[in-house]
What we know:
Strand order of the largest sheet: 3-2-1-4-5-6
Radius of gyration: 17 Å
Oligomer: single chain
Low-confidence stretches: 1-17
CATH topology: Endonuclease, Chain A
CATH class: Alpha Beta
CATH architecture: 2-Layer Sandwich
Number of domains: 1
Helix content: 40-55%
Distance between the termini: 43 Å
Mean pLDDT: 89
Amino acid sequence: MHGHRADRRAGSDDRRGKAGWWDEYRDKIPPGFLDVSEIEHDAVRLRTVQTAHLPGLFQTEDHARATFALPIPPLPRLEVELRVAHRLAGQRVISGPSPVPYVGIAHEAALRMQLGSCEITRAQLLHLAESSERPNVTLLVIPFGACGFPLLDYSVLYAEAPTSLLDTVQMDSPTGALFIDSPTQLINCRTRLDMSEEVALTPTPSRDLINAILKKL
């Protein structure tokens, strides 16, 4: 556990001495998944960027299952189901009684990627469009016609803490989840997120694009 994340956990009165919901998955799925759940739980705002995958916080059960079926060699069935269950449980952070404000940026390529079947993709896009109307959710789409943006090659989760010094960034890498919490890197990442938002469509046109893709399936 990185120092800043440990400090944030120690400083949270409602978490002190209590296990998180994700602890039931310990030793059952990779620890990086649990670390992500913890920083999402402790965040006061979440920002994400995805270019090839849809945000895990909005994935349907079938879409998540199709996503976890992609690795080569294939994961054992039980491990896939555990990851799916963990992903769905984690969605309470944006849909539960005290939802966290969320700003997500997804590239059009991720919206058009069909995983599992056309029916699964249709249900996933419908769920995404409906979720974008939640008061705590801002979903922005970068269309194919947009200029390049500085997080083009990354999937990024930026978890904001009550103080920016305790923010944490999680980035996907070929070897697993990479966590960043140094002040200089956090500033750099915030700047890149801001620049990515600038090339994305605003919320209503983003929802319109999702629905337009949905109608063609």
